[in-house]
Amino acid sequence: MWHGSARARLAKQAKAAVPQVPTSTNEEDDEAHSSSSTSTYYDKVLVDAECTHDGSLRHLVKMTSDADWNEYLDKYLSPTHVQGVLDLQHDLIRNGFRLLKEGGRMVYSTCSLSRKQNEDMVDQFLQDEPTARLETFDTTNVPHQVSFVSDTRLMYRDMVV
């Protein structure tokens, strides 16, 4: 059983260990960031992106009444909120990729079942980023439900010569 102080200490340590990467929807800010003297690049990057939580059973099992569902729909699935999430995911996937070393690997993940937040987001990113490639990987020993995992590929940065 976790004690409040131990959990808080662990959360503080975890937060301090992860570099904060600014996100921006402003192309000038992105260009300035990418041309900065940042010398820290990573072999592996996990982008566990914020989403609309439509695939999170932990949230969905809480819905026991029409009022609960209406509140959920208003809070997470309103057009304004969904667009905000898509914009954030757009920035997160690009910032994650920008931090990769050449030959590095990135995994993009959400808890959403939405095609827009998953396959479409990755497809658009691949169209916009010519040095990104997808790589198939074996899921034989990875616990998953086959019908839900249709795209078992990793993103990686091409070696540029």
Overview of this structure, please?
This protein has six helices and four strands. It has helices at 4-17, 27-34, 57-60, 66-76, 79-98, 119-128, and strands at 42-48, 100-109, 132-136, 153-157. The longest helix is centred in the middle third of the chain and has 20 residues, at 79-98. The protein is globular, with a radius of gyration of 18 Å. It starts with a helix and ends with a strand. GO terms for molecular function: RNA binding; RNA methyltransferase activity.
Give me a quick take on this structure.
By secondary structure, the protein is of the alpha+beta class.
Give a quick account of the main beta sheet: strands, pairing sense, barrel closure: 4 strands, mixed
Q: CATH top level?
A: Alpha Beta
Please mark out the parts with pLDDT under 50 across 5 or more consecutive residues, or reply none. Answer: none
What's the architecture, going by CATH?
A: 3-Layer(aba) Sandwich
Radius of gyration: 18 Å
- For the largest beta sheet, what order do the strands appear in spatially? 1-2-4-3
Would you list the SSEs in sequence order as H and E? HHEHHHEHEE
Number of helices: 6
Report the mean per-residue pLDDT as an integer. 77
Question: How many beta strands in the DSSP annotation?
Answer: 4
Distance between the termini: 52 Å
